[in-house]
Amino acid sequence: MQMGGQVHAITQAGSPYRSERNGDWIKIKIHHRQEFVVVGYTRAAAGIGSLLIGLHNDAGELTYAGRVKSGFDSRTLTELRPRLRALERPVTALKDSPRFTKGVDVAWLEPVLVCEVRYAEITPKGNVRHAVFQGMRDDKPAAGISLESSTPEQPPEPRKTQIRITHGERVIDPSTGLTKRQLADYYARVGDWMLPLLHDRPVSLVRAPDGIEGEQFFQRNTTGLAIPDIETMHRPSGKPAMLINTSKALMSAVQMSAIEIHAWNATTTDLSRPDRFILDLDPDPALPWLHMIEATHLVCVVLQELGLVSFLKTSGGKGIHIVVPLTPKDDWTAVKTFSQAIVKHIAKLIPERFSAVSGPKNRVGRIFIDYLRNSSGATTVAAYSVRARPGFAVSMPIWHEELSMLQGAHVFTIQNVFRRLDSLIEDPWAALPNTAQTITAQMRKKLGIR
């Protein structure tokens, strides 16, 4: 048990403890709760991208404690906007002003508001990791908020949380020797990043019971193979959809030999209206990586000229996924037609670089911009999902600004991904959940559609 850090171990009932890893033991994270002073916020399309928080040190000075980017619902954001704007000040009240990535729009506040936050740990630099907003604490005076009030949440009951990973020593990627146990460890650790993006979003799984060199199965529902802890949602038409909303469900999927997680472009709030569309840049394998970088920049410029904010992630293979969040309004047909019009427009502008038609013959020397994933029931590999390919690359959210520095879409793997995540000052997708935008008549007119 590692209470000073962020994990403790639980085991299958009756399994003896052994210091080495084995298929009976998994790690379950411990979280802490703490009140923090709200010292500022970052602006986003929806008004608030994240809260900047601080704590008083022993000398009574306010020190920076990091950012809170998740846990907000639309009602909370609506209520917070006027409160924060009324408290804006030109300079920070912190002892030392933190540095932010270029382009981050920061507003400093009078340090009078207090919020409660759940977090995994506080780093040696004093910043919270995996912070989740729990609510405002108007009953607490800001002047008395310091680290001494931090209390760990009670660990979950073992009987309710234990997931046994069987055959954990089995090698599932012969090219690297990576095992099922290592894959399970990855998903257990990355859950804090991945699960908020999967929440209430139907998923499909790529399963490889005999490893990636054996037969692989694309599973869209639980018919024929029920997976413990994965929720199902009945739909008016079609078979029940699968949902992975908890760490337990994610680990159950791994136990049942899932390697890849793919997700819909809509959530259970309204499955008939997508909340995003995705353009998948799929290159001729012979093209140099520089062409992919240039192509991604060009597509993003077109989206920007239309007035749309986009987010990027590596595919974990050869391409880049451009994710455009939407406020759910249009149906699947309208969104797919719009995304197809963008692709046709770009292919018409630069036909020597882009193709709007699928198939290997149509992308020789070019990049096919795949819009077909924007159909009802279609899926795209989820952010932070492992790919069932040699090397176990990960589909990784990235900044637009760092695209030019990448050496390929497969550079992030389960063996190096946490060096990146642990070093991030800000989540590249922090503003995505709060980005409010719709497809307008003016956008359609620019593309020549109704």
Automatic annotation (TrEMBL):
<dbReference type="InterPro" id="IPR012309">
    <property type="entry name" value="DNA_ligase_ATP-dep_C"/>
</dbReference>
<dbReference type="InterPro" id="IPR052171">
    <property type="entry name" value="NHEJ_LigD"/>
</dbReference>
<dbReference type="InterPro" id="IPR033651">
    <property type="entry name" value="PaeLigD_Pol-like"/>
</dbReference>
<protein>
    <recommendedName>
        <fullName>DNA ligase (ATP)</fullName>
        <ecNumber>6.5.1.1</ecNumber>
    </recommendedName>
</protein>
<dbReference type="InterPro" id="IPR014145">
    <property type="entry name" value="LigD_pol_dom"/>
</dbReference>
<dbReference type="Pfam" id="PF04679">
    <property type="entry name" value="DNA_ligase_A_C"/>
</dbReference>
<feature type="region of interest" description="Disordered">
    <location>
        <begin position="142"/>
        <end position="161"/>
    </location>
</feature>
<feature type="domain" description="DNA ligase ATP-dependent C-terminal">
    <location>
        <begin position="46"/>
        <end position="140"/>
    </location>
</feature>
<keyword id="KW-0436">Ligase</keyword>
<dbReference type="GO" id="GO:0006281">
    <property type="term" value="P:DNA repair"/>
</dbReference>
<dbReference type="GO" id="GO:0006310">
    <property type="term" value="P:DNA recombination"/>
</dbReference>
<dbReference type="GO" id="GO:0003910">
    <property type="term" value="F:DNA ligase (ATP) activity"/>
</dbReference>
<feature type="domain" description="DNA ligase D polymerase">
    <location>
        <begin position="179"/>
        <end position="429"/>
    </location>
</feature>
<dbReference type="InterPro" id="IPR014143">
    <property type="entry name" value="NHEJ_ligase_prk"/>
</dbReference>
<dbReference type="InterPro" id="IPR012340">
    <property type="entry name" value="NA-bd_OB-fold"/>
</dbReference>
<dbReference type="Pfam" id="PF21686">
    <property type="entry name" value="LigD_Prim-Pol"/>
</dbReference>
